[in-house]
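Components:
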Amino acid sequence: MAEISLHRPLPAADVPQWDFDTDVAIVGLGATGACAAIEAAAAGARVMLFERNSGSGGASALSGGEIYVGGNGGTDAQRSAGFNDSTEDFATYLKMAGGPCVDKEKCDAYAQGALAHYNWLKAQGIPYRGNYLPGKHIEPVDDSTLIWSGSEAAAPFCDAAAPAPRGHVIAHVGWGGGRPLVDILEARARDLGADIHCDARAVALIEEDGEIVGLVVRIDNLNRYVRARKGVVLGTGGFAMNEAMRAKYCPETLRLNSPIGDKDDGVGIMLGLGAGGEAIHMEQFFSTCPWTMPEEQAYGVFVNSKGQRFINEDCYHGRVSRAALDQPGDRVYLLLDIAHFSQPLELAGITIAGTGETWEEVEAELEMPAGTLGATMAFYNAHAREGRDPLFDKRAPILTPLDQAPFVALELNFTTSYFSFFTLGGLKTSARGEVLGRDGVPVPGLFAAGRCTSGLPAWGHGYSSGLSLADCTFFGRRAGLSAAMRG
Amino acid sequence: MAEISLHRPLPAADVPQWDFDTDVAIVGLGATGACAAIEAAAAGARVMLFERNSGSGGASALSGGEIYVGGNGGTDAQRSAGFNDSTEDFATYLKMAGGPCVDKEKCDAYAQGALAHYNWLKAQGIPYRGNYLPGKHIEPVDDSTLIWSGSEAAAPFCDAAAPAPRGHVIAHVGWGGGRPLVDILEARARDLGADIHCDARAVALIEEDGEIVGLVVRIDNLNRYVRARKGVVLGTGGFAMNEAMRAKYCPETLRLNSPIGDKDDGVGIMLGLGAGGEAIHMEQFFSTCPWTMPEEQAYGVFVNSKGQRFINEDCYHGRVSRAALDQPGDRVYLLLDIAHFSQPLELAGITIAGTGETWEEVEAELEMPAGTLGATMAFYNAHAREGRDPLFDKRAPILTPLDQAPFVALELNFTTSYFSFFTLGGLKTSARGEVLGRDGVPVPGLFAAGRCTSGLPAWGHGYSSGLSLADCTFFGRRAGLSAAMRG
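Structure:
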């Protein structure tokens, strides 16, 4: 009998017995798996779902439960806040956010379908209060629905697409709305008859005549063989928690110490590759250090270790953080005046590196040569007073002079500060959720969505909060439906 | 019968007849294939080599014929020029040059074996004049042997490893020493009995019981079946000429218009992936715009579109060019004073974007805000006069004030200037030249080297001239030998 391996499917001829028989087998019970299960079951398929942990959640449950939604004239929350978000603007933003890694077909599909998807989420029971919370927020701390969660209002995005807030957050007081989001979706999947098995870890796919026809799962220390007559859906997340995979595929993350993930060890990517799929943009990752909290700090200016600015700081905090990681050296500085300073979050590991009555004193405390940071801030302040940022096109109200002494430089250190991250690369899939082979042809019987694929959030520098859950839920549904409709 | 495909090996059971029978079949007759053929034949194996073009060459023949060699106290050319290059310094440099993508095992193997490899190349008939040509050269225009071909003498490399020139160029008057290099290696392979077939394009591998046992080649519009009893060696180059692969795997190159390559369409990478291999660091690429010619221009200062410097310009021209491509916008500027200006190479597509009697006038001509470029140059010149570059640690003699009016800004435009490039990502191989599967285990019977693999030149920002031919020739030999010694 062939070996059980993540790296190559087991031939069906080597299956000793079929322990389970279903139409659609789903791996992983985060938002992706739950949405795939709901759609497959609603389409009439028998659905079994296997989760390696003792309960649902995955990385989705660690999130804020925020989903990036817009287009089609806007959601109820957008419209009542005065934003008539067009599909074209929404698609344009999504494509810019994908940068060089963009999958335009997925962007168009989502831009067209996002409003209906939002209504579907509500129909599953996800509650939204419906109100708009202006300002810069990582997540609402109350139960507000709609926030600015990306770089929509910042250059260069705002020059190409009319900006609108698009982060839609489940009604939930405090951070961590991802947990109830998954709970609601799981309950819905169960109501529709999905047969959920926890403590069941996928260890191999099963193939027959070039088609994926099942799955081997490890339950109670035994291999159990799952026949999946219509297909297998992978919803297993990225590989932030797998250091060997990070070293091989995404080595820039090795200097960061705060992966966001549950058991995200890339198992779905490995299974998909072994079945003839391919992985793309594996070097891409999201990262952020929570520098916009407290909120005053969002008005700060970033410089690198040479005292140079490098981005318009009014864009998404994760875009700023990701650009910070491209700078020479091992740290960047967030410059604030007394009007915009509060103690940083303890969690953030952001320290005070220098202070002074003038920017030149701060420069000297940081041991930067005279004429660097001081000159940068003189130039910035002179133009900010005129309401302009000729270098990076930062805009009001975030653009404001920092000229009330004393001054401070906070240090965001790539190794010791809290630079959270997760991976964005993964299996190449069609907009229908099919895993594509290297020849561009779907691997028959194999589907995937979420962070085990390269999807809407394809490019670290273009990430916006809610893009990943949008991708998980929208393409998770499609993957489940594509499997259920097969053959 | 199964389909003939790059993406999956043909089962041996479907082979209608074996048209050729050999021990080692090699795909591609560039430096990699020739070296693999020489070693395999010298080890007593029957060798057949298949080249899709009508003659030898590949991208190797388009190169300068420069090989990066050092360590072990230095080559004859190094020692007679006063450089006693230690293996440790050489290995340290190679590892820094690999950046986050480094394969330390390959670096150590090459650092230890490079001197013997150089002597082997001479024994194959490659002529070296043996002299040292100081200064900054892309390639010697005479027949000199030894040049500085990387960032050895520049920060941060020179702080970690004692610098030495390591670019060893075949004796050949003028550029283009790659052509005679391949010719000599090809002749040597023929002398040893390698059976070379041109106009023979590889279209599939053949497998039996999980081993690669042959190759399908297209000759005279017919499929011909090659039995390779010991193994197949891929030496097919990168994918610079395959726009679809670039879009999928290395999309940052899409804005560049000058690929360096012959038929480099990634066929070997596809064959290897289909056989269970894996591709790594596919987003990495080498790029350069020939800005150090004429030589005076090497003394210039680079600024991005914000008027900021971004690198110590005394490092390798390709490292500067690659960092330029990371800057915001679509161009960078090379600043020169009259003492260091000559007309740029016409080939380079470098234009004059601004001139002035002061740097402030140049700044205004480039429509940069007052206090940007002018301040950058005032700061640079003040420190250069003291022999220091406190920002990027550029060093004398390249560090020199640019203060003799008139001044000029040359534009290096990412789209319209000649930013040549080739890809660096490829199959993951062992230091013995075996193609590794995703589980880290060699794919039995499959070997590869050169730019269809990720090797010594793994990271675009660390490239040094001669690293790729070093990789092709050294690991090409190992791949051929590993195949010949098998089973």
